[in-house]
Amino acid sequence: MSLLSVVQGVCSVIGVQVPTSVFASISANRTMQEMVALANEMAQRIAYDTREWREQKVTATFTGDGVATAFNLPPDYLRMLTKSSVWRSTNSLQPMMFIPELDTWNQRRARNYVSAYGEWTLLGNQMLIQPVMGVGVTATFAYLHKNCVTRNAGGVADTFVDDADTFRLPERLLKLGMTWQWKAQKGSPYADDLGTFSDALAMLMGANKPAPIIIGSVPLASTINAEVAYPWPVPTP
Question: Model pTM?
């Protein structure tokens, strides 16, 4: 489903003229200007703010040269995953220590003190790593990338620029999200549309990765996408 078909679907529901093109003569079409702005906002909101979709996860690796301690983050980098660690190839049992405060990082550098597992922090568009990684030593981590749109002209990006561009996640979500948000912005009743969007979002979020395995006998009727693997009391030593 292209951006054009998404917008056509939204327009047919909200009661505005269904377009034959989104971007043709857009400079003179206020409605399509609003549709593009809404599509970009909703696509990014779904991709960035609702969960860490597997389609948006990427792994990166920095390779040491015996000198560098600062490495440029990938061009599509949005943020670290909420449970992401940085793994040094010289230690597969313990990830490097994350130093969240730059002041603490500077203090440790001034003291010439570093964890035996290595340390890392983020500064600007770079990841800083200590101690220096030797030639061939690597640091690997997972992150969330920002490109939620597949461009018709090739490649990926974070915004729509063509009628045939497509959303990288389920496009029905984009249509449902645009519908309720458009109605809300225009002062129309939107509660039912928001509910439909929320239901679809919850179901797709649950199905986006394997369900957890639960040990125990608690009824799971209210638990989304989970099943009991061991229905007896948890064994104790």
Answer: 0.82
Q: Residue 219: pLDDT above 70?
A: no
User: How far out from the chain centre does Cα 192 lie?
Assistant: 27
Question: CA 45 to CA 162: how far, in whole Å?
Answer: 20
DSSP code of 97? Answer: E
Angle at 44 between CA 196 and CA 198, to 5 degrees: 15
Residue 57 pairs with which residues in a beta bridge? 144
Per-residue model confidence as pLDDT tens digits over 158-212? 999 999 999 999 999 999 999 999 999 999 999 999 999 999 999 999 888 765 5
How many Å separate Cα 170 from the centre of its chain? 14
Tens of pLDDT, residue by residue over 95-106, are 999 999 999 999
The dihedral region occupied by 153, where left means phi > 0, alpha psi between -120 and 50, and beta the remainder, is alpha
* Ramachandran quadrant class, 187 (left: phi over 0; alpha: psi -120 to 50; beta: rest): left
State how far the Cα of 98 lies from the Cα of 92, in Å rounded to an integer: 16
With CA atoms as reference, report the closest residue to 181 among 9, 23, 10: 10
